[in-house]
Structure to design on (1089 residues):
């Protein structure tokens, strides 16, 4: 059971920031599907929750030229079902549809997931793999500068993710090996091709959270087919290791996942 | 225990006979129609027995009208929260409760010392199985084993992570949990041990000072000299060591209890879902030193048991005690985290098995060395005991020798878990047979066929002294193979290969035993309206007793099923009853309900004879009415009952002879050697359940049983970090489960070879799905990996384990596509 806390439903960005500032130890909450379980286990004890999802700037999904812009408070289910997303970046819609279960997908939000930067979460791989821009209440941050290690981001205290702008690629694919228990990513690879440029982002595996696999990007830029990855390997030294997968197995899965993502563009491929 | 002792006991030192047809059956083994009072069963008049009658409990359960423990609340109730040990093994130097006592809303903070001061004793778990047919497990010196007293709260030390050492009772759950954090325990950490083999090693930490070396049971069975002789002359010996992983039940409804004390009558009512309210009442009354008449236990709907709820939990006693001290109702509901740490767990057996064969592949003898990890104290020896009687599986093995040990460790206690003890030994013998076949270059089906116990040898006494009652083992295997389309394997192999997958098939035969508490009682009342009420002491947690039991009584009394109501789970109504475990319920309840029905019909016949004016023995009984061929007059059971004198009969029956459900299961898997994903693509089984009262319910039980076995084989595991002693799977984030999307559709068939031990010929259903599944899945995976050089893999066979096995294997580098 959680410790006591106060609750505030913010209507505007300023309202949210003020409510956050005025408490000793406030936390923003969107879908609550990462934060509330932590609070129930008494591992987090904010004295005030500031609820963000009613703030208009955080809503909406729209195509804006060569970009797809998604509000931070859009749910996984909303993204998965959006014709705009399905048309622009089908792998992103499929990724959203593969998160957790229907309950999780109807509460959890893109902003919450990205701000949380769980090393096994799905969205960070798409944000980094597509080279998205994170818009916040204060500024714009490049994906390459945003993720800063497990559960750590470039966000400052009190800064709110408002929306994320994804460049629309020529093609993108996502391949995921799921943890047999939690079904979070055990290793998953998001591969996006923009003309001659390729970006590969891997989640679930790295001990610093989501990361880009540069050797694979170079090899695929030269030749965009699974065979281009032959002989390439991720260094197990930088991998997480636990009862579900050793560092060596994770490193192996990074390669397998990247190859399958290349082979199956526009789709989600479940390795297990 | 001694009440059941008799000459047929399998004592460790009794001279065992070689296995073979059992010519001298123990007294009372076979069902005696005359002595039972049932006489000839009206089999040809069965209307609903054998029919897939829809489960009457389901509408209630799926529309949220179930009454689970936490659904009950009493005005003014308080909430209990536990202070639990963060250490696997630590001395309690002192407990400072002062700060917690003063926290808002707190009414009491209680420790083990308070319980001792109030005269509370340990829970009388009675873990040594005691029917005439259970093997006799004893301490190394031959005495009754020391089991480690299970006080509600320990006073000396905590022996596993999560052990409750103090309780806070407060006005709200939040207040109780907040205050529990203020209780300060002065701990002295002690060395700890989690693995049962490590625990027996010299110098291992001592869980109980009373048991140096931690092995508190050490018994041997079988004819060692004959086994040694057979091994000496064997053409081949196959040998293997296995660990059957530890699992937990993950019941959908966490365990909970609500105690309500009535100061006026001095009586306590405990709402607590369990595997049988009668045992809970008896053992809790003894723990608290209450007159059993002062305790009523209610167990209504139970959201999953699988064995985890059969034994008394400390929290049940604690809320009872607190409610009597505080004269207020007190509730405890476990969180999922508490359930993972402190629900009674299952399995955890180390086994070393050896099989001696002659040059033709005939089994000559077997040796087994089984070590059961019971955890921090012993609440049940059922798994070790059940398995002991079945080490030879479905096969004729003339001689066998078993050493059975049980060991304390710094882990949560283990208990009987769905199909207690049987999947473990089935896994061992079936894997051993596959190993022998491969080593000797024999076909694994042919090797099994050569050694299966023949129907003509039934009843059959095994080398462990179990008497298999009936069964057609080879026919089971043939039917299962036909259902599976065994002949199509090569084609499916090729098809899988074309898709880059490796296909594997695992087949396992099984025999399991259903023994269980020998006593059961039924009370049957026919009211003037014709409604039939049956009070019975079993406790369903999804098995559909309200339906299948009603089918039995309906056919016995020749009345529609809808008229029969089954009353369970209230100790004010149910005075005696063994609960539900070990697949005992249909057989024990069916038998005693048939007896009570026959008694009731006898009484009714006398009354009817009076009414109709004919001698009782001349009356016919059809469609629920008595008649005479010389008269058009009839009288129904309902008409014979009056408000003052309803028709009533009660019967208590004691039945010791176990039955041996049996069958064959086959699993097919496809493995992606790159990702190490394992997918079950086909699963077929034949289960001989004896007479099948309701095939739909039995099929449902088989499906659930298979899923549970598959779950253990593929995902479920309670590992412990050796260094810290901490459980690593404390939530569903780390404890993998079977789900709708990762278990296949099953092809299940039922075989009905009637058991000669009870009136209906019932064996048991529901555990048979689980029993062979650990073996079938593992054997299928090994079959698929054999071409890649993998010979062994341990459960659960996760992708990680598979990857490790592939990389350790000699031909490991062959595949990478
Ligand atoms: C059973 C279960 C299964 C799951 N499975 C998966 C899975 O397979 N894959 C996966 O990726 N995830 C999974 N999740 C996590 C889920 O996707 C969460 O919803 C998501 O990670 C967090 O989003 P949220 O909106 O719920 O965030 P919240 O829980 O509300 O917040 C998470 C963190 O982000 C902060 N935050 C929230 N919104 C913002 C914002 N706009 N700006 C700045 N900070 C913010 C909060 O303060 C908090 O620290 C699962 C969760 C559950 C409960």
């Amino acid at each position: 059971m959680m410790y006591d806390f106060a609750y505030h439903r913010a209507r505007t960005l300023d309202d949210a920031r003020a409510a956050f500032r005025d408490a000793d130890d406030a936390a923003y909450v969107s879908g609550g599907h990462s934060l509330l379980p932590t609070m129930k286990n008494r591992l987090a004890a904010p004295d005030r929750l500031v609820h963000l999802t009613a703030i208009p700037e955080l809503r909406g999904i729209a195509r804006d030229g060569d970009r797809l812009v998604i509000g931070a408070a859009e749910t996984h289910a909303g993204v998965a079902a959006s014709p705009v997303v399905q048309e622009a970046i089908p792998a992103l819609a499929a990724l959203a549809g593969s998160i957790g279960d229907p309950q999780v997908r109807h509460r959890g939000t893109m902003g919450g997931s990205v701000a949380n930067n769980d090393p096994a979460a799905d969205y960070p791989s798409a944000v980094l793999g597509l080279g998205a821009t994170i818009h916040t209440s204060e500024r714009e941050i490049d994906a390459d500068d945003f993720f800063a290690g497990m559960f750590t981001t470039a966000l400052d205290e009190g800064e709110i993710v408002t929306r994320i702008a994804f460049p629309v690629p020529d093609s993108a694919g996502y391949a995921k090996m799921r943890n047999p228990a939690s079904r979070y990513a055990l290793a998953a690879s998001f591969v996006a091709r923009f003309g001659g440029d390729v970006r590969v982002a891997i989640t679930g595996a790295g001990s610093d959270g989501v990361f880009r696999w540069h050797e694979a990007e170079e090899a695929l830029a030269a030749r965009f087919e699974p065979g281009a990855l032959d002989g390439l390997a991720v260094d197990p030294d930088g991998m997480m290791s636990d009862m579900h997968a050793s560092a060596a197995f994770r490193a192996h899965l990074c390669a397998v996942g990247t190859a399958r993502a290349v082979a199956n563009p526009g789709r989600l491929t479940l390795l297990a | 225990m001694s009440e059941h002792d008799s000459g047929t006991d399998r004592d460790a030192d009794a001279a065992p006979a070689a296995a073979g047809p059992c010519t001298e059956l123990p007294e009372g083994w076979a069902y005696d129609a005359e002595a039972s009072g049932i006489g000839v069963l009206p089999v040809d008049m069965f209307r609903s027995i054998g029919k897939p009658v829809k489960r009457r409990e389901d509408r209630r359960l799926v529309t949220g009208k179930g009454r689970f423990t936490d659904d009950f609340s009493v005005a003014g109730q308080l909430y209990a929260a536990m202070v639990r040990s963060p250490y696997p093994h630590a001395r309690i130097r002192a407990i400072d409760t002062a700060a917690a006592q003063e926290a808002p809303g707190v009414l009491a903070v209680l420790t083990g010392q308070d319980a001792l001061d109030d005269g509370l004793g340990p829970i009388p778990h009675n873990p040594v199985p005691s029917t005439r047919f259970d093997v006799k497990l004893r301490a190394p010196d031959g005495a009754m084993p020391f089991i480690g007293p299970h006080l509600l709260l320990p006073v000396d030390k905590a022996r596993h992570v999560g052990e409750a050492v103090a309780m806070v009772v407060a006005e709200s759950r939040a207040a109780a949990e907040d205050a529990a954090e203020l209780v300060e325990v002065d701990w002295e950490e002690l060395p700890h041990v989690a693995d049962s083999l490590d625990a027996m090693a010299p110098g291992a930490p001592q869980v109980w000072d009373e048991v140096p070396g931690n092995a508190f049971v050490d018994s041997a069975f079988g004819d060692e000299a004959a086994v040694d002789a057979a091994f000496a002359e064997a053409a081949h010996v196959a040998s293997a060591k296995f660990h059957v992983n530890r699992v937990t039940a993950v019941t959908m409804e966490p365990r909970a209890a609500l105690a309500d004390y009535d100061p006026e009558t001095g009586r306590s009512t405990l709402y607590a879902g369990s595997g049988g309210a009668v045992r809970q009442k008896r053992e809790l009354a003894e723990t608290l030193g209450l007159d059993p008449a002062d305790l009523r236990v209610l167990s209504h709907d139970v959201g999953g048991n699988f064995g985890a709820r059969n034994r008394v939990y400390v929290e049940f006693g604690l809320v009872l005690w607190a409610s009597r001290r505080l004269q207020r109702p007190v509730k405890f509901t476990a969180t999922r985290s508490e359930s993972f740490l402190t629900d009674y767990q299952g399995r955890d057996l180390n086994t070393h098995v050896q099989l001696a064969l002659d040059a033709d592949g005939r089994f000559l003898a077997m040796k087994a060395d089984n070590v059961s990890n019971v955890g921090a104290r012993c609440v049940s020896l059922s798994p070790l005991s059940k398995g002991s009687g079945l080490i030879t599986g479905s096969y004729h093995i003339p001689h066998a020798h078993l050493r059975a040990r049980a060991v304390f460790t710094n882990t949560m206690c283990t208990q009987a878990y769905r199909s207690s003890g049987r999947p473990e030994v089935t896994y061992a013998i079936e894997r051993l047979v596959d190993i022998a076949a491969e080593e000797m270059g024999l076909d694994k089906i042919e090797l099994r066929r050569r050694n299966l116990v023949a129907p003509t040898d039934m009843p059959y006494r095994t080398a462990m002294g179990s008497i298999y009652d009936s069964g057609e083992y080879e026919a089971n295997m043939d039917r299962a193979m036909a259902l599976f389309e065994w002949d199509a394997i090569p084609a499916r192999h090729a098809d899988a290969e074309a898709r880059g997958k490796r296909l594997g098939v695992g087949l396992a035969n099984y025999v399991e035993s259903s023994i269980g508490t020998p006593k059961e009682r039924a009370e049957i009342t026919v009211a003037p309206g014709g409604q039939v009420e049956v009070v019975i002491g079993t406790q369903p947690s999804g098995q559909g007793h309200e339906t299948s039991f009603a089918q039995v009584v309906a056919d016995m009394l020749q009345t529609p099923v809808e008229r029969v109501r089954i009353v369970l789970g209230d100790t004010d109504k149910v005075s005696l009853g063994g609960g539900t475990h070990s697949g005992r319920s249909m057989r024990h309840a069916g038998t005693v309900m048939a007896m009570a029905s026959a008694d009731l019909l006898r009484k009714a016949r006398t009354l009817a004879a009076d009414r109709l004016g004919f001698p009782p023995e001349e009356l016919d009984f059809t469609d629920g009415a008595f008649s005479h061929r010389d008269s058009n007059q009839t009288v129904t059971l309902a008409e014979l009952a009056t408000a003052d004198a309803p028709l009533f009969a009660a019967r208590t029956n004691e039945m010791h002879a176990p039955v041996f459900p049996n069958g064959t299961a086959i699993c097919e898997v496809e493995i992606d050697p790159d990702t190490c994903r394992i997918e079950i693509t086909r699963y077929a089984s034949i289960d001989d359940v004896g007479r099948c009262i309701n095939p739909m319910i039995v099929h449902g039980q088989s499906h659930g049983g298979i899923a549970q076995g598959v779950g253990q084989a593929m995902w479920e595991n309670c590992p412990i970090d050796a260094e810290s002693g901490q459980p690593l799977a404390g939530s569903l984030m780390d404890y993998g489960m079977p789900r709708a999307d990762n278990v296949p559709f099953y092809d299940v068939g039922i075989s009905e070879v009637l058991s000669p031990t009870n009136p209906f010929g019932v064996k048991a259903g529901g555990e048979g799905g689980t029993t062979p599944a650990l073996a079938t899945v593992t054997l299928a995976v090994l079959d698929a990996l054999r071409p890649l050089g993998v010979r062994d893999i341990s459960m659960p066979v996760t992708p990680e384990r598979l990857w490790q096995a592939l990389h350790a294997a000699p031909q490991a580098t062959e595949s990478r596509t």
In short: DSSP finds 21 helices and 30 strands in chain B. The pocket of flavin-adenine dinucleotide is lined by residues A 27-35, 37, 52, 72, 99-100, 104, 107-109, 111-113, 115-116, 118, 121-123, 160-161, 183-184 (CB under 6 Å). Chain B has a mean pLDDT of 94. The domain at 69-190+255-333 of chain B is CATH 3.90.1170.50 (Aldehyde Oxidoreductase; domain 3).
